[in-house]
Amino acid sequence: MTRGKFIALEGGEGTGKSTQARLLAAALEGRGHKIVITREPGGTEGAEAIRNLLLHPPGKGWGARAEALLFAAARSDHVERLIRPALNEGKWVICDRFVDSSRAYQGGAGGLGDDAIRALHQFGSEGFRPDMTLLIQVPPSEIADRLATRDNGVSDAIGGRDAAYHERVAQAFAALAASEPQNFCVIDGQGNPDTVHQHVMAALEPLLAGDAP
User: Are 159 and 56 in contact (CB under 8 A)?
Assistant: First the structure.
């Protein structure tokens, strides 16, 4: 059986990752592929429990190191119990966030550094990476409007952090993409979802060449 492909969608808050994941799943299903659409943190029963702890933390919340460890633990379970088995069954896995979100949020904006996050990922998930990572970028001014519409004033513990934190996230993502062009395909996230979806499909052409489910 041919191994499936693993595609991660990355970006800051409000860049449209979830919408593009759904559109991509529909397009790939239309080409005859079996699709698993998932998210991080989450995707398995254990990882979803950790997601709730992260986004709705008890007490005063988590320190930076504890937060990074929780993300790594959720990802380890996700990779072991859902992602690898699905790929081995020939399915294509589309994930809303993966390790590069931890690198940008906890490593970059959170100040823990990239080496720490990469070490956690190497231990927890054996350094596992997607076949393609799509980084969706949207200007800050457009993001603010999107979040106001999406959240209606109510955000989770991470999404609700201040604008300076999210600006550091965006800068960290941009720096990662610039320093590792082999790992990222940058997508212009401006415009309507169908236009962005066309950019996504164009970026996936290398994986789709000779497509034969």
Answer: no
Question: In DSSP terms, which residues pair with 93 in a beta bridge?
Answer: 6, 36
SS3 (DSSP) at 29: helix
Give CA 136 to chain center in angstroms. 10
The owner of tokens 């209606």 is 152
- Beta strands 92-96 and 132-137: pairing type? unpaired
Q: Measured between alpha carbons, how far is 182 from 203 in angstroms, rounded to an integer?
A: 13
Do the Cβ atoms of 40 and 78 come closer than 8 Å? yes
pLDDT digits (tens, 9 = 90+) for 99-148: 999 999 999 999 999 999 999 999 999 999 999 999 999 987 777 676 66
pLDDT tens digit sequence for 24-83 = 999 999 999 999 999 999 999 999 999 999 999 999 999 999 999 999 999 999 999 999
Domains and CATH numbers, the chain: 6-208 (3.40.50.300)
Q: Classify 212 in phi/psi space as left (phi over 0), alpha (psi -120 to 50) or beta.
A: beta
Q: How far is CA 149 from the centre of its chain?
A: 21
